[in-house]
Design brief:
The protein is mainly beta and 185 residues long. Helices cover 14% and strands 45% of the residues. The protein has a domain of 124 residues: Roll (Hypothetical upf0131 protein ytfp), CATH 3.10.490. Strands 1, 2, 3, 4, 5, 6, 7, 8 and 9 form a 9-stranded antiparallel β-sheet that branches. A hairpin with a 4-residue loop joins strand 7 and strand 8.
């Protein structure tokens, strides 16, 4: 199997920052895997909440079956409890980390649409979306770094409880004795 990677530039009428509605250039990293069956284009997705495989959500299980698990990882950001699920916002504060898992997914897979629907992200109407999917630097536990898609919250976190650990599974198991575990095999 041979893997090649490149970065594409997409011109859109949005950016990954709430409140800005200008033409922007978005980088999208795409990798090409050459296998015996032909060439497959893949993108990385970082999940940090109810889509983590150990949480047990149906779409998280589908993600773990269709995607290639790359490892435990973190992004620079802050995590908040929104009730039934967490929300994440980017952060430039040193030490602010959100823990989750990174997966490779076929760039043309229908699971991207399912993920967008689940996260209430509408690429054609980002200002009407609860989350926005943006390419973000992801740091793997192994020490490697990658560019992956992350669903960032577009609303206000004022009044929400911050999840200090940055790990939703740890937070929920500590608060409610959940069977969800932060370990990912």
């Amino acid at each position: 199997m041979v893997r090649t990677s490149w970065t594409c530039w997409l011109v859109t009428r949005r950016s990954c920052f709430v409140g800005i509605s200008l033409l922007s250039f978005s980088r999208v990293s795409v990798s090409s895997l050459k296998t015996e069956g032909g060439e497959v284009f893949v993108m990385l997705v970082f999940v940090y909440g109810t889509l983590r495989p150990r949480w047990g959500h149906e779409l998280g299980r589908k993600l773990s079956h269709q995607g290639d698990f790359k490892g435990r990882a973190f992004v620079s950001g802050a995590l908040y409890d929104y009730g039934d699920y967490p929300v994440a916002i980017p952060s430039v504060v040193r030490g602010d980390q959100i823990h989750g898992e990174l997966f490779d997914l076929d760039a043309g897979s229908s699971i991207w649409r399912e993920l967008d629907d689940y996260e209430d992200y509408h690429p054609s109407a980002p200002t009407e979306s609860l989350f926005e999917r943006c390419e973000t630097r992801v740091f793997l536990a192994s020490g490697l770094e990658a560019l992956g898609q992350v669903y960032w919250f577009r609303g206000s976190v004022e009044g929400l409880r911050r999840i200090e650990s940055g790990d939703y599974l740890v937070d929920q198991s500590g608060r409610y004795g959940s069977s969800a575990s932060a370990d990912c095999d």
